[in-house]
Each structure stands twice: as C-alpha cells, then as structure tokens.
Specification:
2 domains; 5-stranded parallel β-sheet; Rossmann fold; 48% helix; 14% strand; binds flavin mononucleotide
Length: 257
C-alpha cells in the first residue's frame, strides 16, 4: 500500500503524534507499505494568486504548477490519502487553506471517486469538529469515496504521550481506513455527495466553464446522477435526476454571458 501524508502543521508535534500512531497501525496491517510524507511548511508554495487559470485554462497553467503538480500526481497514485491540520483560529492552518485553494478546480472537475482519505485534526480546546467537517466536505466535493476522521482535543497527555483511550480510537479508525482500501470496496454515495455531484454536473453542462464541460463529457460523467464506476441504487438517484433538471432550467435562465 502507498500512503500520501500531507502534514498541514508547520511543525511535527501534537498532530504528528497522532500520525505516528496511524503509521504504526498501518504498518502492522501491511508490511509492504510506503509512506510519502509532505510537509506543507517545507514546499514554499506561494499564496494562490486568484488568476483563475486552473479553472479556465487548465491546472497546468497555474503559476505554481511545478510545485503543486507532483503533489497532485501523488494524490492520484496513492492508495490512501492522509491530510492533517491543527486548528488555527477556529479553522485549518493557512498552509492547508493555501493548499486547498490551489486545488479548488477539483470542486469543478472532481477526480478521486475511487480513493479513500483519513483526516487528522488536533486542537487545544475547540474547533476540531468544525475543521474536521470542513476537510471532510472539501474531500467529498473532490470525489473521495470514503473519508475517515480523527479529531482530538489535546490528543496527548501532559508528558506528550498519547493516552491508551486515544490510541484505541486512532487504531479503530485507522483499521477501518485500511480495511476500506484493502477490501477494494467502493461505497455508495451519501446524499451530500449526490447533491454536490449534480450541482457541479449542471454547472458543467451549462458550459459556464468550457473546460469543465469537456472534462465531464470526456470522463463519461455527464450522463448519470453519479460517477458511472461507483455503485448507486437507481431509486436513490431519482431525486437527484429531478434536482439536476431543475438546476439546468435555473442556470439556463440565469447565466450571464
Ligand atoms: C496560531 C495558532 C492558532 C490556534 N488556534 C486555536 C484555536 O482557535 N482553538 C484551539 O482550541 N486551539 C488553537 N490552537 C492550538 C492548536 O490547535 C493545538 O495546540 C494543536 O494541537 C497544535 O498542533 P501541532 O502541534 O501539530 O501544530 C492554535 C495554535 C496556534 C499556533
């Protein structure tokens, strides 16, 4: 198994202690593993300039393409994706937000339908749930089939060690993450995933951004209520068929040339 770990803290302290336990647990499950670790603090990624190049002209035209594209390649090729952030001012760190801003085109052109992710958040007292939910929502929009969350207040004790109870929670979720990848089973989308998919599908159909339209057609994603490779009950899709039609009507009347 190949795992990509994106460390969204500028240091390797509290959040990293949780990651170390995750790595140990994953290693116990599978001896032939590989961890590719990227510290966002080390890659010197400038702020997103808001040039809209990724949306309109393709991600390869991003001014920071050389920095971001090897990471995207690793995200596409890994078996399991792990992303971490401590809570900073009730949100993700600036490092994580800047990273996500550079990948915002994945909302328009979701890709990771067959991938599983593990989200790790630590905080001193608050914001862990909100930040975990934000990362979950972001990865859901990018297509991630299943997302697991480990969000802790003070994961470690006064001496910097993880308490037994915390270790058990980490192990349980990590094993679920591992089994989901190893079992090769793709989960049927939840309602939010279906909602997001059809929202972006309608916008892509409407060809507000030509590149999005091309992407959805070329990847055979435009013609059904969810990605064709992911199992989804026909009945579950019906409300989203209607939702999509309504959106198309709305967008055709409200699009500014
Ligand atoms: C700039 C900054 C902002 C923070 N903001 C919050 C916050 O809003 N709420 C909170 O409970 N903890 C906050 N913290 C504490 C960290 O979330 C917490 O100590 C975390 O575990 C640090 O993880 P790390 O050691 O992996 O960087 C903040 C810490 C820093 C440095």
């Amino acid at each position: 198994m190949n795992y990509l770990i994106i460390n969204g803290s500028p240091r390797r302290e509290n959040t990293w202690k949780v990651v170390e336990r995750i790595k140990d647990t994953l290693s116990d499950n599978d001896t032939s593993h590989n961890f590719n670790e990227i510290n966002l603090g080390d890659i010197n990624l400038p702020q997103c300039t808001g040039c809209y190049n990724c949306f309109n002209n393709g991600e390869h035209t991003c001014p920071h393409h050389e920095i971001i594209s090897p990471i995207v390649s690793a995200m596409k090729s890994c078996d399991g994706f792990i992303i971490t952030s401590p809570v900073y001012a009730l949100n993700v760190t600036g490092l994580v937000k800047n990273f996500i801003d550079h990948l915002a085109y994945f909302y328009h052109r979701p890709y990771f339908f067959k991938k599983k992710a593990l989200i790790v958040v630590t905080t001193a007292g608050s914001g862990h749930k909100k930040v975990g939910d934000y990362l979950d929502e972001t990865l859901r929009n990018w297509g991630y089939n299943e997302r697991f969350k480990l969000c802790f207040i003070h994961a470690h004790d006064g001496s910097g060690r993880l308490p037994l109870k915390t270790k058990k929670i980490i192990d349980k979720t990590t094993n679920q993450f591992y089994n989901s990848i190893a079992g090769n089973q793709l989960k049927s989308p939840d309602r939010k995933a279906l909602f997001n998919y059809n929202l972006w599908r309608a916008m892509a159909y409407n060809a507000h951004i030509e590149l999005d339209n091309k992407y959805w057609i070329e990847n055979n994603m435009m013609s059904s209520e969810f990605h064709p490779d992911i199992p989804c009950n026909v009945l579950k899709k019906i409300p989203y068929k209607i939702f999509y039609r309504i959106l198309l009507g709305f967008l055709s009347k409200n699009t500014v040339e």
